[in-house]
Write a structure and sequence with these properties.
Layout: E1 9-12, E2 28-31, E3 34-36, E4 41-44, E5 48-52, E6 54-56, E7 61-66, E8 81-85, E9 93-102, E10 108-118, E11 129-132, E12 143-147, E13 160-169, E14 182-186, E15 194-204, E16 209-218, E17 225-226, E18 233-236, E19 240-244, E20 249-250, E21 255-263, E22 276-280, E23 287-298, E24 303-313, E25 328-329, E26 334-335, E27 370-373, E28 389-392, E29 398-400, H1 452-461, H2 475-479, E30 511-518, E31 526-531, E32 537-541, E33 553-554
Parallel strand pairs: 4-10, 18-24
Antiparallel strand pairs: 1-2, 3-6, 5-8, 7-9, 9-10, 11-12, 12-14, 13-15, 15-16, 17-20, 19-22, 21-23, 23-24, 25-26, 27-28, 28-29, 29-33, 30-31, 31-32
Length: 556
């Protein structure tokens, strides 16, 4: 409460000289006015309280208003006494009110009062129920679920903020969800009927707690050993699969575990003689299943077994063979992969990151996988020394191989590695520019011209490798052959497969034409090329004087 000081108003009459002589009279008036809003209060939430103002002199008018907090129902008010209801609150809430009093003669006085609203917490109610299984007593190996979903907070604005489960009695079981609304565990092996005791504690949003207890009856088991291989799993190929048999049980003091494979593509088990084992999911075609058996043996050599099925699906590794980069680097040197300070390195992603586990159809360095084909397009063995083209088993594309250089152009064979061509593409999608052909027998052995379209026609007419649908590759297709770990060497291709490549000295680059027109330079006057010497792309004008190499591709 703030009490205003009484104000004395003094009115003096001036002594006025009387007409015709020195006389006069003197008079004075004094008026007091005050208001008192009452003492500060403390009240519990939801309870009623009254604000009462006392004023002097009486007979004036009152006006209440709220200065802080959400305005309560009943405010503002124009009576000396106001009855209000304390709002709901989670913490101490301070409300301030002001009363204004206007005296009968028009003097205005004010005073303020504060009301502290105290929160009152009703404790929550913990309710524990057996939600699974529906039939008790529960049997060995059954999954048991206890639910706290029916627990509640009686406060209208309250809620339960946390749950806590604790085992009180019975053989110790592994709890799942001990701090959540639902608790689960596997019924243990007991040789006689046993109750498992648990306590549930719930805490509300005002830190009030309440606990309750529940017992779960467990049926006596006729078995002395129980094997639990864990739930079936679904994983992606190349991922680490964890096998866990620690939920197994024995009536004796100890037991041992042993894992073995029942069916499916062969996997290499790590720690197969321990309860926790693992393996790397193999490379699969589409999807596959691997079944593992867990055998548990107790100290009396009594055994029990259980199996787990691991479903394996394809990993998202992309539709390209990858870059060939298998090492990680900082700004100046090689570093171990997995460095948190330099994450997302090329070698840590894609097919190159799982090379030891790839199931290759053919051969190739790193994650590359090629199959050799003969002159008719039929497969030959990986160690064959005679082959005419290769199939990329990742993309499915069949690639042209070049022939050895025997002489300088034009005294060369059709597919000699040193033949060069200007880009000529009369097909739609060429950007409106078909290109100019280099002269016949200038940089190639053709009597027609040394343009790319002429070369494509000649290779298709020869039904090379059993196909007549050879074409120019896209930039991405051509780049998919490059092993970027070979930078600094003669070229970026596997020399065991791509045996005959042109010499860098012939034109100081290893530019290969693609089928894609480049917008560089404006319009469709240029074509993208890929430099097989360093992995860079560029564009060359479609002019007779602009020469590059060709490697054709086709689909089976």
């Amino acid at each position: 409460m703030k009490l205003k000081t009484l104000v004395l108003v003094l009115s003096l009459s001036a002594l006025l000289p009387a007409c015709g002589g020195g006389g006069g009279d003197e008079g004075s008036t004094t008026e007091l006015a005050s208001v008192n809003a009452g003492a500060d209060q403390s009240v519990n939430e939801r309870n009623s309280f009254t604000l009462t103002a006392v004023a002097d002199p009486t007979g004036g008018s009152f006006s209440w208003r709220q200065l802080t907090g959400t305005v309560l129902s009943g405010m503002p008010a124009s009576t000396a006494s106001v009855r209000l209801t304390a709002p709901v609150t989670k913490t101490d809430l301070l409300l301030a009110f002001q009363v204004s009093y206007t005296s009968p003669t028009g003097l205005v006085r004010t005073d303020e009062v504060q009301v502290t609203i105290k929160p009152v917490n009703t404790l929550p109610v913990a309710v524990a129920q057996l939600s699974k299984p529906s039939i008790v007593p529960v049997a060995l190996g059954q999954q048991v679920e206890l639910s706290a979903a029916s627990s509640y907070d009686p406060d209208a604005d309250g809620s339960i903020s946390s749950y806590s489960w604790q085992q009180l009695s019975g053989p110790t079981v592994a709890l799942t969800g001990a701090s959540s609304k639902q608790l689960s565990f596997i019924a243990p092996l007991v040789t006689e009927a046993t109750d498992l005791g648990f306590k549930l504690t719930v805490t509300d949003d005002e830190n009030g707690s309440h606990s309750t207890e529940i017992k779960v009856p467990v049926r006596a088991s006729s078995s002395t050993v129980y094997a639990n291989a864990g739930a079936d799993q679904q994983v992606r190929e190349f991922s680490l699969v964890q096998l866990d048999g620690r939920a197994s049980q024995s009536s004796s003091a100890s037991y041992s575990c042993s894992w073995s494979q029942v069916r499916g593509q062969t996997v290499v088990l790590q720690n197969a003689s321990q309860c926790q084992a693992s393996f790397i999911a193999p490379d699969v075609a589409g999807s596959a299943e691997v079944e593992l058996r867990l055998t548990v043996t107790d100290s009396a050599l009594r055994q029990a077994a259980d199996t787990v099925v691991v479903s394996i699906v394809n990993a998202v590794l992309g539709s390209l063979p990858d870059t060939g980069m298998t090492r990680c680097y900082d700004q100046s040197a090689e570093i171990p992969c997995g460095n948190a300070a330099l994450p997302r390195q090329d070698a840590e992603h894609g097919r190159d990151s799982v090379i030891p586990y790839l199931r290759k159809i053919g051969r190739g360095e790193h994650a590359f996988d090629f199959t050799k084909l003969d002159e008719n397009g039929d497969e030959v063995s990986d160690d064959a020394s005679e082959f005419s083209c290769v199939r990329d088993n990742v993309t499915g594309l069949i690639w042209e191989l070049k022939e050895p250089v025997l002489a300088a152009a034009p005294n060369t064979t059709l597919r000699a590695a040193n033949n060069r061509y200007s880009d000529v593409n009369p097909a739609p999608g060429n950007g409106g520019e078909a290109g100019e052909a280099a002269a016949a027998n200038s940089s190639c052995p053709s009597d027609t011209d040394c343009g790319t379209q002429t070369y494509i026609d000649e290779v298709n007419d020869a039904v090379y490798c059993g196909g007549s649908n050879w074409r120019m590759p896209t930039l991405v297709e051509l780049m998919s052959l490059a092993d970027f770990s070979r930078r600094g060497q003669a070229h970026l291709l596997d020399p065991a497969l791509f045996r005959y490549e042109p010499a860098l000295s012939l034109q100081n680059n290893l530019y290969y034409w693609t089928s894609e027109t480049s917008a560089e330079g404006g319009g469709g006057i240029s074509t993208w090329v890929f430099n097989n010497q360093n992995g860079n792309d560029n564009s060359l004008p479609k002019q007779a004087s602009q020469l590059a190499y060709i490697r054709l591709v086709r689909t089976p």
